Inverse folding.
């Protein structure tokens, strides 16, 4: 079951997503200039809206009003999409969500400016919560959480580039990249949602931990998918990681557990092969044989359980129930 | 007299610049990772630090403590440098402040990420003012001013690209670009400084107007320099605007005032010439003959006078004196 379906099928999630989609529409549709049009193209039709939904549920889980924090939730999506737009320039990806990426459709220059604009809008959206009734003290405190999440994202991008270039099989650095590049924005959404919703220090810390650990689990599971379900959904093997020499957790754990011969085969397949499909076949076989899938799955589950336990310290509510559900859902997607 | 000299030679300006330079050093020197090193390279040695100095003086002019708002002042420089880094990618400029630009030294990918990091740091710096004693209500209010300045900057970049591509001689759009692309960050620095310093609504509005108008005067004067002082300082004519087909205010006003023949020559020189120096000679002659320099100088002076008058509504202080001095200095640079 795809994650967006599992999310939407959960009671109460679809209305939250619709709130965010409407807010994005209100902010960006019908804008007068070229920049509005590019930003709108990048945002709508929306993706899973996972980060804004986490922000709304984090706010509600601590007793906050989702309508008051709605601008910040829309902003969380803008920040996320900004990172996708700039990533697609860096990775020279021409497709995003099944459509031409911004850099492919509008060119690199407009893509740089649109990404920058969406980062600034992330913060303008946060400021807008002053007008929807969130006290200034919460807005000021959330500002730090969001800005540091953004800085961590950039550090993660930089560290990932360094890791890929180094060709090291380094689990600790892989986890560090996942925490910075992926989990930081989940953490920023949950932490800022809890702050804006008026949570206590303990509640904010719990939701911050929830965000960081669910985000890490999300990334580990994402990297596992290439070795779990090839061909089943897309009809073709998922060669992109192998092709780009990305040393993901399953490969790192296979390298740790493998024989000298398997290690050599992994290195050859990742860094010296010109046939991506054949390389994926080799890597997949070794990843499976060495128990790396089981080991990586176990790590994802450990992070997801930490997330679940963190959120169970909050009082029971429909939002808390959804948050615990998400902790399971992110590691049980089968593509 | 170069603007940095005229700034530093003014009583009290050099200590402010040194405060900011020290704060940037503290934030970015000795950072552990590759991203810190790139950001540090882009920030130090510093430029004129005009925006942070304006922020500090705006805070002081309304009775604020410059040390409390110092993180925000350093952040204003980070935001400005972020825009330079991304601009240099867009314009494929290999030189910045007499050294290789970030994109030239580190490549486009690292330059995108470093610019993003510095935008996030602009906001992290603002949040840091909570720890230096600025009340949350001011931080939250300043957030809106800074975020909207950033959005305007992006709109200005987008509009300038559109104006250049259209080859229109359009003074209204030129001014709009100057207000958005250049003046917005001056405005953001002055407005946020006034807010963080605890200014009244009237004082904040006065410094906001000051920032927007001094920034507009600054840009108009910048575009005039190509026709005022060729060869005198750099030893070579300033052909870059003509080469890039940038339709700046002197050219637009010359086009408005010129004969049909002069208009045709301007269009040919800007858009059809392959010899940039010759084209500059033609454009300079027509700009001078049509009185466009006088007219553009008059417009710059009008904006600078509005800035000066705005700041004169504040109580007398050394900061107010420096701010009025800057309003003159930005249009009296002779290169």
């Amino acid at each position: 079951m795809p994650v967006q379906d599992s999310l939407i099928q959960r009671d109460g999630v679809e209305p939250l997503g619709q709130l965010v989609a409407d807010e994005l529409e209100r902010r960006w549709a019908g804008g007068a200039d070229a920049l509005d049009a590019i930003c709108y193209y990048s945002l709508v039709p929306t993706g899973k809206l996972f980060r804004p939904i986490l922000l709304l549920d984090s706010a509600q889980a601590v007793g906050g009003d989702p309508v008051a924090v709605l601008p910040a939730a829309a902003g969380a999506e803008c920040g996320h999409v900004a990172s996708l737009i700039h990533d697609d320039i860096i990775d020279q990806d021409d497709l995003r969500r099944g459509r031409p990426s911004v850099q492919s459709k509008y060119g690199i220059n407009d893509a740089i400016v649109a990404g920058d604009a969406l980062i600034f809008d992330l913060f303008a959206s946060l400021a807008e919560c002053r007008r929807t009734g969130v006290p200034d003290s919460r807005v000021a405190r959330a500002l730090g959480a969001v800005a540091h999440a953004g800085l961590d994202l950039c550090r993660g991008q930089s560290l990932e580039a360094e890791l890929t270039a180094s060709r090291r099989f380094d689990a600790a650095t892989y986890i560090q990249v996942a925490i910075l590049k992926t989990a930081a924005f989940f953490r920023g959404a949950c932490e800022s949602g809890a702050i804006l919703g008026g949570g206590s220090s303990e509640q904010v810390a719990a939701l911050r931990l929830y965000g960081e650990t669910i985000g890490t689990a999300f990334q580990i599971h994402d990297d596992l998918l290439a070795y779990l379900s090839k061909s089943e959904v897309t009809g073709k093997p998922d060669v992109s990681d192998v092709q780009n020499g990305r040393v993901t957790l399953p490969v790192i754990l296979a390298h740790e557990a493998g024989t000298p011969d398997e290690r050599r085969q992994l290195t050859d397949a990742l860094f010296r092969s010109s046939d991506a499909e054949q390389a994926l076949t080799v890597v997949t076989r070794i990843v499976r044989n060495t128990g790396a899938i089981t080991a990586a799955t176990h790590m994802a589950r450990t992070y997801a359980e930490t997330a679940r336990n963190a959120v169970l310290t909050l009082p029971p509510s429909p939002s808390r129930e959804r948050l615990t559900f998400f902790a399971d859902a992110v590691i049980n997607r089968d593509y």
Summary: Chain A touches chain B through 46 residues (CB under 8 Å). The two ends of chain A are 7 Å apart (CA to CA).
